[in-house]
Amino acid sequence: MPTSITVETFLPEHWEEVQIIYESGIKTGIATFETVTPTWENWDKGHLPFSRFVAKQQNQIIGWTALSPVSTRFIYRGVAEVSIYVAEGFKGQGIGTILLQQLIESSETNNIWTLQAGIFTENVASVKLHESLGFRMIGYREKVGKLQDSWKDNYLLERRSKKVGIN
Question: What is the spatial distance between Cα 158 and Cα 133, in angstroms, rounded to a whole number?
Answer without folding.
Answer: 11
